[in-house]
Design brief:
By secondary structure, the protein is an alpha/beta fold.
Length: about 575
């Protein structure tokens, strides 16, 4: 194990060493998971009380132009985006990504790939947005079921020439997209296996296109614990420890860097975790780089290329920072005078009315989790239940994206909490089906649901699908035969987040309310301000808990009914 760690370190030192007189230099600049973050914002992740200002896309433009100014006969540059480029901030979401594409055109991106959140809009809408791009969109594993070919808005790879070096740029989109997107939006698409697709196209660009260097733009990221994870996957000779892959999600960047030979540089994303220097596989020597999210930074590293062999010989990091992820502080990178007006015009159109106060929060509504509860999460499901007068409301844990500070609450605040265009859906079901919904989300290693209208106690020591030891609905003991009204989002109703059983609900029992979840939250603040949300007894894990007598009686009745 120690020998492997040493090998990894030596690999880093080897690639970062010796710059020779004949070397060429290629600046790689990149963004990933921007989620519409081209506008100015506050860096709450640095200091929530006194956040420094970030310049967004205009500050990024200042840095990009500086890097490009270094170009000469021995030095050039490339600028990439790794997907999830628009869904999140108002200027991205409301314009369905068009404002972000216009910005990317203005600053001159060289290529981008697609992330899972690009498919939060319909395929026709995405096609219309991408048609504006003045640069190629690459992805080698998205296939149109109707034609068996690539959709018209992507190509698998491109070949560019820089400094007399032939560079292949291959795109890749995570197969997680199939689990995280609205099925209706991707019904005509197949997302092929990442490893198989990438292996195929690396071979094509190496053998048929005679590429000197291969760069992958992959919407897939590194594990949070790179070394620890690597040691659980591969032995001290780099061989996989397991013959079969049992992961639920798609291949990550570390696996692809190790198991697909022939890649020089893998530019990743999806994970939202930036790294200060490249992860380098000790056997393939593939470098992996990835940045943080929401447009808070720009990634920049410089590949050194041997002018004779036209192969990568090492890398350098920018002298102006301690790593390749450069935080775009507005005071350090004065927003570019040419790009700023373009962004400001788009933001003004998208954000009209965003700062209108809709209510007040009595306390800081944070995402700090107490098991499956958080103050902001509890408020959201309370709002959902209030909107349609349901007995039970539920939401997936990953659906909440920001906190709300105590005091006046604007539509912008609510947008940042819930940037996705989820719509409310209610349905009726018996109590046994309601229990199964909860049991599904505490099965295995799952951590539950954000809920309202119920009181749940469960034990992880009990068998799967029999972990709920106490359940009340509306303060009354759960009744497996009673008909309850439930409310959730269209995203979950489509069977996402592991809730495939929701696709079994008869259509005649479902009401699509055409109410955006954000609007339901606005209505809740308008009706209940100042909002006093608290952590209460709606959700509790107790591994020592035993089923209550009421629970045992109800389950016995349900069993007899089935018999």
């Amino acid at each position: 194990m120690k020998s492997k760690i040493i090998l990894i370190i030596l690999s880093f030192l080897f690639l970062a060493s010796g710059i020779f007189a004949e070397d060429l230099y290629l600046d790689i600049m990149f963004t990933n998971d921007m989620h519409g973050g081209i506008d100015r914002s506050e860096a709450n992740f640095i200091n929530p009380d006194f956040p420094p200002r970030l310049g967004g896309g205009a500050s990024a433009a200042t840095l990009i132009k500086y890097a490009r100014s270094l170009s000469n006969a021995q030095r050039s540059s490339l600028l990439f985006d790794i997907g999830d480029f628009f869904q999140g901030r108002p200027v991205g979401t409301i314009t369905k990504g068009k404002a972000i594409i216009e910005y990317m055109n203005a600053i001159g991106y060289d290529a981008m790939t697609l992330g899972n959140h690009e498919f939060d809009i319909t395929e026709d809408e995405l096609k219309e947005t991408l048609a504006l791009a003045k640069f190629p969109v690459v992805s080698c594993n998205i296939i149109d079921k109707r034609t068996g070919d690539f959709p018209p808005y992507v190509v698998p790879y491109i070949i560019v020439d820089r400094l007399g070096v032939r560079i292949a740029i291959i795109g890749l989109t995570t197969t997680d997209t199939e689990k995280m997107s609205f099925p209706e939006n991707i019904k005509n698409l197949d997302f092929l296996d990442e490893k198989e697709s990438l292996t195929k196209y690396v071979k094509i660009v190496r053998e048929e296109e005679q590429a000197d260097i291969v760069i992958v733009l992959g919407h897939a990221g590194l594990p949070y614990d790179n070394i620890e994870t690597y040691l659980t996957r591969y032995d001290n000779k780099g061989n996989p420890l397991f013959t079969e892959r049992y992961a639920v999600w798609g291949y990550d960047a570390q696996e692809l860097a190790r198991e697909v030979p022939g890649i020089d540089l893998f530019v990743g994303g999806h994970i939202h975790k930036g790294i200060p220097s490249p992860w380098i596989d000790p056997y393939t020597h593939t470098m992996v780089i990835q940045g943080y999210a929401y447009g808070s930074n720009l990634g920049w590293m410089t590949l050194t290329i041997d002018s004779e062999t036209k192969s990568v010989s090492g890398y350098k990091l920018p002298a102006l920072t301690d790593g390749m992820m450069i935080t775009l502080f507005e005071e350090e990178f004065i927003p570019d005078a040419e790009i700023s007006p373009i962004i400001e015009e788009q933001v003004a159109k998208a954000e009209e009315g965003m700062d209108k106060v809709v209510g007040y929060a009595a306390v800081n509504l944070t995402r700090t989790n107490y098991d499956a509860q958080s103050l902001v999460g509890n408020m959201i499901v309370d709002a959902m239940r209030n909107e349609v007068k349901a007995d039970f409301a539920f939401l997936n844990l990953g659906g909440v994206r920001a906190d709300i500070k105590a005091g006046p609450v604007t539509y912008r605040d609510i947008f940042e909490v819930m940037p996705f265009d989820n719509m409310l859906v209610s349905f009726t079901c018996d109590g046994e089906f309601l229990r199964r919904i909860i049991e599904t989300r505490v099965e295995g290693s799952r951590h539950g649901l954000i809920v309202s209208g119920v009181n749940v106690v469960y034990s992880k020591k009990r068998p799967n699908y029999d972990r709920v030891t106490s359940l009340k609905v509306g303060g009354e003991p759960w009744d497996p035969n009673k008909i309850y009204t439930c409310v959730t989002t269209d995203f979950l109703m489509e069977g996402n987040a592991g809730l495939t059983l929701l696709t079994q609900v008869p259509k005649e029992n479902i009401i699509y309310h055409q109410i955006n979840l954000r609007d339901a939250i606005v209505h809740y603040f308008q009706q209940h301000s100042p909002v006093h949300t608290k952590i209460d007894d709606r959700w509790k894990r107790d591994d020592n808990a035993k089923p209550t007598p009421e629970m045992l009686r109800a389950k016995s009745q349900a069993t007899k009914k089935e018999e």
